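Quick question, first post here. What does this chain look like in 3D?
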Amino acid sequence: MKILVVKLSALGDVVQTLPSLSLFKKCLPSAEIDWVVDERNAGILKGHPLINKVIVFSKTYLKSFKSVREFLRNLREKSYDFVLDYQGLLKSGIITGFARGKKKVGFKNSRELSWIFYDTKLPPYDPEMHAVKRYLVLTKEVLKMCGVEVEVGEIPDVVWQEEFLKPRIWEGDYIVVVPGARWKTKLWELDYWEEFIKLFKAEFPEIKVVISGSKSEIEIKKWAEYLEKGLKGVKSFVGRVDLKGLVNLLAYSKVVVTVDTGPMHIASALKVPIVALFGPTSERRTGPWSPIQRVITSKVPCRPCFKKECKEKVCMKKIKPKEVFKEVLKTFNS
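> Answer (accepted):
Ran it through. Tokens below.
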């Protein structure tokens, strides 16, 4: 059995598809599974023990005919029994269309006309269903086509590359805060983050606070370095670790305090305690799926709005540092 998974981005979406990978390998242990992923997220999949081959795609390939030809050659090198579009967008639909496969599977209500590239259209999914469960529904239907009936109850455990978790890159007790996100509307005020960190350090001076983020988050990087210099027991890892390092950092954290972003889903997959701040997005659709989690929202009538731009950002501003600190305390005491 040869299966091609098409799930390009974003980081959180890729991580939320990993339980489906676990389910496939549990039910079809001899299956050969390849995965098409965006180059920004390829590091989370490379060397994965359950993946046969990682096929990397980049928007930059579109600038060069030679790069496109090489990507298509790599994509079409093998013929698959199933090509599965977990993304459900035009770009993933096109890649699904170009891949060589006996059955090309996706949901009938996938977006941006991506469904026109499928020859096997699954019934529409419930948009309010959590993303992890939605991907598992697709997986379950494909397994049924293979003659394997499964009931998906608990979310299957995610398998990680051994070298991601050993050795630890940061010793001692610490928490991780993740202030960055791709949507501006998901961001919590940096002043609020600073107040929360000070509250935490006053209560737990012996536990370090690690600030995580990507090198592209310039403002957060400067702010984190300022706190690192000014507050004892605060360490900035913003832009200092790759995806492998990020997984390692999150794996040993006592709790991860985060907005709705990719590292939150990594922490979920690692079953690390989470306190997550949700504003414009829905915790029902994309919230942490670990059983050890607390979600904080504000009671405003306009959320969730799913807007990437908002002048007011009232849904995030109404979440106060003391409230977040109280939830962290509950996590420590539970």
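The longest strand covers residues 100-107.
The domain at 2-159 is CATH 3.40.50.2000 (Rossmann fold).
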